[in-house]
């Protein structure tokens, strides 16, 4: 069958013209075109229903941030109160603490967790022994697939006051009695340590892919010009992954206020509350356990809006600095 | 897969060296060797340091596991007296015997396996069923739907409104709440859609000409060609459900419906061994520490069993996603 004939039978080439019908219909009516695709629309229904119910209905549900939501009155019936909950949030003594905790964790992530995969990827890239490289890679990916519950459990087992292996070790080195899990001073270091342990290896994938794309000829040219390995790294490898780094940085900014609910929640206890409470967990405590739906929705909305501003802001900044942005 | 393993430096060196040695084609091998030795000193120091750092990283990653696995096979006395070990003096099964004799643990294990199997099937089916129509460029309204989906990747309703929807649907304390609210991952959906678009058009055309309905084209042509990606997403989703802690925390209130992650947390983080196991035998003290080790091991084993597959497929997924978004 010729290509033209096949084309005739394609649904999008219009109605397959019956012999007695004039071949006019360049524009088949929308209804007819849609009827032709009825099976496809039928297949779309479950997915569409999912997005409407579990994605768009909650977006509409955000309106309760501006209401005094009462469950028996629902989204539509509850009385409107305007920005009252937001004012309450900004005036609340919790606000400063939440903001500080969230921002400090975000900053620590930016300083420690963001560059770690880049450094490890650069180190891995210099390994000429393929066996070593492969095995190190396979091993450091593993924690990515474990749940935060497991990571928290390992932390508890290793850092527990009397029985933890690392606590034992630290006690014998420094001759002090460490109490990692309930001393608030250790909360942030532990969180960063967990993040580094869980996600550094996995984070290297994207950078290794970028490094694989570097043109070999550049290295050869540099070597002819007398560049040593360090200079090759500085002048070729690093510039080559710059755009990947920028994109990852933009993505990170968007999640800056996402402290990671599961991780923080699992590491929070009554003794470290003061430094542990972040927007994510606060929404849970206030909303789910105390039932203040409207107020906690307002807190969540505030966080989401700041996050969106941050991602667009950093994208704008990246483009101003002459880098390719995300959008 | 070449992308996650950048071209080896060794290959690079060999190639270029041979290139340079064009004038002396008789003994290129020797040339390479001498070049390599000459670059030593600083290079060797760097290499050895680099290897040490990377091996150190690998050890830091693995040692906690080895400790937990060793601890789960060690006696209670050994766990409390020895600070760190990766090989118990004496292998005992008491921790495993104990937790497998408790109803709470067994129930959570069965619930988790059941929810993971059913949930994965539902999620994969819904994702693929939606991805296929969206892969057809000529479908009216396709771009609108795609944009509406991509928007949900940027913005969402948040925890409380989602919770209220789940509650309004009567899904609280229902196992369905553990997979339905996350039934379609927009990111996976887009990847699947892109994959379908790459499939050879001719096969589908031929089937249509032979009188196949769209549903038939999907089930008989598209799905059989999509086995690799089907397996990949099944793994994606299964790991997601298995590891999920937030959904059971939010939506499941009765402890009898707890998943393994909830159980692990109760035992290890809250150290609430007695409450969970509900053992009321005054003559026998449960191996409190050993139980913690054993639960962690059991919650991790399935992931480690599937790990070789996971690593391969997930890495590919990450890269596809990063390139085609």
Write structural notes for this entry.
The complex is a heterodimer of chains A (327) and B (325). With 327 residues, chain A is an all-alpha fold. Chain A has helices at 3-9, 30-36, 38-61, 74-77, 84-91, 93-113, 115-125, 130-141, 148-159, 165-174, 187-212, 216-224, 229-240, 242-254, 261-267, 273-276, 279-289, 293-320. Chain A has 18 helices and no strands. In chain A, α5 (84-91) crosses α18 (293-320). The longest helix of chain A is centred in the C-terminal third of the chain and has 28 residues, at 293-320. The two termini of chain A are 43 Å apart. Chain B has 325 residues and is an all-alpha fold. Chain B has helices spanning 9-20, 28-38, 42-72, 76-81, 94-100, 103-135, 142-154, 159-168, 186-198, 201-209, 214-225, 227-243, 246-251, 260-269, 273-277, 288-324. Chain B is globular, with a radius of gyration of 27 Å. The model of chain B is unreliable at 1-37 (pLDDT under 50). The chains are: A mainly alpha (327), B mainly alpha (325). Chain B: It is found in: Cell membrane. Chain B: Its main location: membrane.
Please sum up the structure shown:
The complex is a heterodimer of chains A (327) and B (325). Chain A is an all-alpha fold and 327 residues long.
Largest β sheet strand count, sense and barrel closure of chain A: none
- Helix/strand-derived category of chain A reads mainly alpha
Which geometry of chain A do the CA atoms define?
globular
The average pLDDT value of chain B, as a whole number, equals: 82
Q: Which sheet architecture does the biggest sheet of chain B show?
A: none
- Name the average pLDDT of chain A: 87
| Secondary structure tally, helices of chain A | 18
* Shape assignment of chain B: globular
Our count of domains of chain B comes out at: 2
- Detail the poorly predicted runs of chain A: 1-17
Q: Name the helix and strand elements of chain A from N-terminus to C-terminus, one letter apiece.
A: HHHHHHHHHHHHHHHHHH
Distance between the termini of chain A: 43 Å
Query: Level of helix content of chain A?
Result: 55-70%
In the CATH scheme, the class of the largest domain in chain B would be Mainly Alpha
Strand content of chain B: under 5%
Helical coverage of chain B, percent range: over 70%
Oligomer: heterodimer
CATH superfamily annotation of the largest domain in chain B: MetI-like
Protein name (chain B): Carbohydrate ABC transporter permease
Membrane topology (chain B): Multi-pass membrane protein
Pfam families (chain B): BPD_transp_1
Subcellular location (chain B): Cell membrane
